[in-house]
Specification:
Layout lengths: L1 H11 L1 H10 L3 H11 L5 H15 L6 H4 L7 H8 L17
Helix pairs in contact: 1-6, 3-6
Length: 99
């Protein structure tokens, strides 16, 4: 239910989010890091993401949910909604064929 609510509000503002994100150097790379590389965000990276989201929340009020205490638990939902790809990237698999 919460995911559906967030998805509807974020999709409504998706273009504005991407327009603003282009002005913030490194924001999208950092936001999609966990999804693209399967490595967890560090504490410093989460704090940097919070700063970016705080800036975005001035334009898009629903973003406030992600900067509230515990909002970092919702970040994967935000990333999933904003991801333009239909599927996740495959995990890093060795390119050496099995015999």
């Amino acid at each position: 239910m919460l995911k559906f609510f967030l998805k509807r509000l974020i999709l409504k503002n998706k273009n504005l989010i991407f327009q603003e994100a282009q002005q913030m150097q490194g924001f999208l790379f950092l936001l999609f890091k966990e999804r693209n590389t399967d490595t967890k965000w560090t504490r410093e990276e989460k704090e940097q993401i919070r700063k970016y989201l705080k800036h975005l929340s001035a334009y898009i009020p629903v973003i406030i949910l992600f900067i509230l205490p515990g909002g970092s638990l919702l970040l994967p939902i935000l990333v999933e909604i904003l991801d333009r790809r239909k599927q996740r990237r495959a995990a890093n698999v060795s390119s050496i064929p099995a015999n």
